[in-house]
Amino acid sequence: MTIISSLFELLKNDRKVCIMITNFPPYPENAEALRGGVTEIHEQLYNELVKNGIDVFVISLSLYGRSPPREKIYRIGTYIPYGKSKLRRSMFPILEFFNPLIFFRTLRILNKENPSCIEYSGMLQGSVAPLVASLLLKKKVFVRNDWLCPNLYAKEHSCSDMERMKECANCLGVTNILLKPLIGLYSVLMLKLKRFLWNRCSGVIVQSSYHKQLLEGWGIKPEKMIMIPPTSVIYEDPTYTEELIKLKKDKIALVYIGRLTEEKGFDLLLDSFRLIKQKRSDVLLLVAGTGDLRRETDDVEYLGWVEKDRLGSVYKVADIVIVPTVVPEAHPAVVDDALKYGKPIVAFRVGALEEMIGVQGIFCDEITSKSLYQTTIKTMDDITNDQGG
Questions:
Q1: Does residue 280 sit in the same domain as residue 205?
Q2: Helix count and strand count (H, E) for the chain
């Protein structure tokens, strides 16, 4: 398996690069952008390619149908987050299968721009049409971040066809006895279709040994895989650092960075923090991110979305970084950043976290708010003792 240091290193010798991704700026005003690690990495990649004189354009969807126009950013459809629309959720099988309008729009753009390489980072609600169009035109395609599990976050292992038939509906929260086998069958067929397409691409990007093992279990050819861990470049803003220090005062700062969603474990974090507050008053929770689970609670400070040019300030003031994701992730960027700053990390044993964190991680015994509370309290006590408190 080939190992490359970054996406830029993979693409820097190409004449013209196309990035395909669900969301890409500019975003609509007064609309939550639902940004995350994947989007940030590709904004950084785009800027790095432009900075180095490489021609680049983006094919993405329009958030809520209101994303502002921008040169070299093509919108081929509308994206409304599944969590925001029951209608969209009910249309999941159609939206993710094959959209002929998006197929022909993609063909037209690719024929016009004629890229030498396509970095396909998945396109929720864009269906497999952009990938099919790219392969039909015999373009060099590298796949990154597309889903092979309809729950978007896979289990710890690669499910067999029989497991998909039996369990996919349960993972998606579907209880209708008539729909369950149909969802299982859809999942099996989508896996076979995407596996066929992926194995005909120039490369499939994996981000960790866990990720590689997962894709091998799904039938992706090992010789197609290229190991490229995500790269994250963040900076400190002295003025913002001072603001956070004043906000922190003399308290222990727990820091959460990411989307405020259930799969990220933010609900468990809030529940555990209420328990922590019952035992310790010298604690503050700093939250950098946006999402539906925001709840106003004493000593929880919501910083909103913090740009990378000052995100380092948040890590600098942190005493403990909490990574409570409850679903397996291939390589969360927040862990890399916390490691760079030498911060202790409290997390659940899911996905690649144990592989990434190693001895710097303090792992919970089980995925519950109680276990998260117990592990965090112990880590806080250790910090207090080390400080002679």
A1: no
A2: 15, 14
